[in-house]
Design a protein that fits this description.
The complex is a heterodimer of chains A (142) and B (286). Chain A has 142 residues and is mainly alpha-helical. Chain A is built from 4 helices and no strands. In chain A, helix 1 packs antiparallel against helix 2 and helix 3 runs antiparallel to helix 4. The model of chain A has no long low-confidence stretch (mean pLDDT 86). Chain B is elongated and about 100 Å long. The chains are: A mainly alpha (142), B mainly alpha (286).
């Protein structure tokens, strides 16, 4: 059993013990009229109340220690998951590059066609279209 | 021959499509892990509430540090689920803009008829989809096969069996602590001893009871109601962890058949349950 698990069990034990102390305290009923019995009643309530405080504080302390230990226990798994995600993100970026490449290829095709059209029929519109296609290629390669 | 070619292409693409279920469940898991981060603070908040009532608690610094550690751990899971969603989502890898340009370029070639343009565009899209979808599936399979077991271990063993169980115990103890504290205060304010303070929340004090008694009962009942709400939130937190674990089991046992229709149905059903638990967790900690 790991330290984290042992501490968790101890924290639970403190919680159960605190709960039992509270049950006893509430089961004591109203304060007796007899002065001696009333004194004993007061002392017992004070004792149980103090025990509940101690056990609750212990529950907080052990629970915190247990979580700290558990986080340490799982650090290898968490680092591994982080590494797998990082590798996958790198692969995803490569796939995005492939799709971007297809866009660039299409734009180069556009430029080629525009140049051919301008060479066959060199007018202002055709040259303008070729310049526009050239700009698109340069933007795509940025 | 042509029909056979088309059938071959269709078969190729069918295996690579229908990843919507994987993308959908990954998105749900990402949102769930964001809600888990909000529950990380509850241990610290519970400690702070107990600290005010119990002088034997020195401080809550350890829980503050743990809350940060837990937030980091859930952030690792969130990034993992988000990466899976990114790989499963086709939006990031669309080739439609590029293919539209190809189609336009081809249509400008003198003598080309529209049917040929469509054919070229369709074929290019088909080939690109096959290449890109195959790459996406490979990334998803690697993510699930390499990281799925560890992610499930963190969800099951760290968050569910350990953290959620400790949170439940902590809230039970906080309730005991609160009842003990207010029981003493009630006795000091001349309310009858031996009555569980929770009984005062179900009933009401006589109209002529002193103002101090009203204020004490009101304060206790507010604290008690908050604890009931938090216990419900932890139950929903556990439920969302269970759904996440189920989703991870399905993904791992079907990593070779991620586009399977039956898997898709199961993942959508788990996603619906997960969203419901997450909504409750978010509402409780809002």
């Amino acid at each position: 059993m790991t330290i984290a698990a042992s501490l968790k069990i101890l924290a639970k034990l403190c919680s159960t013990a605190a709960s039992k102390c509270l049950e006893r305290k509430l089961a004591m009923g109203p304060k007796p009229d007899d002065p001696i019995e009333a004194l004993v009643w007061d002392q017992e309530r004070t004792r149980l109340s103090g025990q509940i405080d101690s056990l609750s504080a212990m529950n907080v302390h052990l629970g915190s220690a247990s979580i700290a230990a558990a986080l340490k226990d799982f650090s290898d798994e968490l680092n591994f998951i982080a590494g797998v995600s990082k590798d996958a993100n790198s692969e995803i970026r490569k796939i995005k590059q492939v799709s971007q490449l297809l866009t660039k290829v299409a734009r180069v095709l556009d430029l080629g066609l525009a140049v051919i059209a301008a060479a066959a029929n060199p007018g202002a519109a055709a040259i303008g279209a070729a310049l526009k296609a050239a700009n698109a290629v340069s933007e795509a390669s940025e | 021959m042509r029909i056979a070619q088309l059938a071959f292409c269709a078969a190729l693409t069918a295996g690579c499509t229908n990843l919507e279920a994987v993308r959908s469940i990954s998105t749900d898991l990402t949102l769930a892990s964001e809600s888990w981060e909000t529950t990380s603070d509850e241990l610290y908040n519970s400690c702070r509430r107990e600290y005010r009532l119990n002088h034997q608690i020195a401080d809550c610094e350890a829980d503050k540090a743990n809350a940060l550690g837990l937030a980091d751990a859930t952030e690792v899971l969130r990034i993992y689920f988000e990466t899976l969603a990114a790989a499963a989502g086709g939006d990031a890898f669309t080739v439609d803009a590029g293919l539209a340009d190809v189609t336009v370029s081809v249509s400008r070639i003198s003598g080309v008829d529209p049917a040929q343009v469509d054919a070229v565009g369709g074929l290019a899209r088909l080939l690109a989809d096959i290449v890109l979808d195959a790459k996406r599936e490979k990334v998803m399979r690697e993510l699930i096969e390499d990281g799925g077991a560890n992610a499930q271990l963190v969800v099951d063993s760290l968050l569910k069996d350990h953290i959620a169980a400790l949170m439940r115990t902590r809230l039970q103890t906080e309730r005991v602590q609160a009842i003990n504290f207010y029981d003493d205060k009630f006795a000091n304010a001349d309310l009858p001893a031996g009555v569980n303070p929770q009984d005062y929340c179900r009933d009401r004090l006589p109209r002529n009871a002193p103002a101090l008694q009203f204020l004490l009962v009101e304060e206790f009942c507010r604290h008690d109601a908050l604890l009931t709400e938090r216990e419900g939130a932890i139950a929903d937190y556990e439920a969302s962890l269970n759904e996440a674990s189920r989703a991870l089991t399905e993904l791992q046992s079907n990593s070779a058949r991620l586009s399977n229709a039956v898997l898709a149905e199961r993942l959508f059903a788990i996603g619906a349950d997960l969203r419901s638990s997450v909504r409750n967790v978010e509402a409780a900690f809002d």
